[in-house]
Design brief:
This is Phosphatidylethanolamine N-methyltransferase. Keywords: Endoplasmic reticulum, Lipid biosynthesis, Lipid metabolism, Membrane, Methyltransferase, Mitochondrion, Phospholipid biosynthesis, Phospholipid metabolism, S-adenosyl-L-methionine, Transferase, Transmembrane, Transmembrane helix. By secondary structure, this protein is an all-alpha fold. It contains seven helices and no strands. Helix content is 75%, strand content 0%. It is elongated.
Length: 204
């Protein structure tokens, strides 16, 4: 069971009306919304592929924009943590190194996921018509679904613990929620794309 009193005490350290905190929340929520809207628009209209001359060029451009937005999100996250108090009981070596270990595991999942999928596989290439031959089942996909998302969440969790930051922990929860919602939308849509591909192959 969750200790509600402890949670209330923990988040009593967080000023949710702070401008930096609000900006961080908005940047976290905006990113998956942005790439899902743009990718679905591209899948429906092929407008980006036409503008950039090819699906690959368009996908690389969107990927670059997503990377920049992720850097902005990380900057806003860090600044929001710095502007709010630390939890003194957590400001110790044990918490710091625990956070470092969690971030390392998250980084492993993110990097290995990218290497398994490639650039276009990572950055929504299937929405551009750049489909993989088969579903990736190697590590880290053999360990958990959506390792890129949960690895990224783990990085933020570790970063928050390293800074003994209640604000960081609350923002990490926002990251987890935003990714959970993204998965609910992306999963069925991507499965439908590949179902149509298989149906097209069988009909030939």
């Amino acid at each position: 069971q969750v200790d509600v009193a402890a949670m209330v005490q923990l988040f009593g350290y967080v000023d949710v009306t702070d401008t930096g905190f609000i900006v961080a929340v908005l940047s976290i929520a905006f990113n998956p919304l942005f790439w899902n809207v743009v990718a679905r628009w591209e899948h429906k209209t092929r407008a980006l592929s036409q503008v950039f001359g090819s699906p690959h060029a368009a996908c690389y451009c969107l990927g670059a924009v997503i990377l920049v937005l992720n850097c902005v999100r990380s900057h806003c996250f860090t600044e929001a943590m710095k502007s709010q108090p630390k939890l003194e009981g957590w400001d110790c070596h044990w918490t710091y190194y625990s956070g470092l270990a969690i971030s390392a595991v998250g980084t492993l999942f993110v990097i290995s996921s990218f290497l398994a999928l490639g650039f276009t596989g990572t950055f929504l290439g299937d929405y551009f018509g750049i489909l993989m031959e088969e579903k990736v089942t190697s590590f880290p996909f053999s360990v958990l679904d959506n390792p890129m998302y949960w690895g990224s969440t783990a990085i933020y969790l570790g970063w928050s613990l390293m800074h003994a930051s209640p604000a960081g922990l609350l923002l990490t929860a926002v990251v987890a929620i935003s990714y959970t919602i993204a998965v609910l939308y992306e999963g069925p849509f991507t499965e439908e794309i590949y179902r149509r591909k298989q149906k097209g192959v069988k009909s030939k």
